[in-house]
Amino acid sequence: MPQWLSNQLMRAFQKKDRRQIRLLNDCWFYYRAKPEKSKDSAGGASLIP
Q: Superkingdom of the source (predicted)?
C-alpha cells in the first residue's frame, strides 16, 4: 500500500470519517486490481502463437 494512502486512511479512521474511509477503500481495491488485470491480459496474449 502506498504511504500516502496509508496516511490518509489513518487520518480518516482517527476522524471517524466514514465517507472518506469508503472512498479510500475503493481506491485501494482499484489500485490492487489494476495491475492484476494487465498481468492477466499479457499472460493470455503470450499464449497465442
A: Bacteria
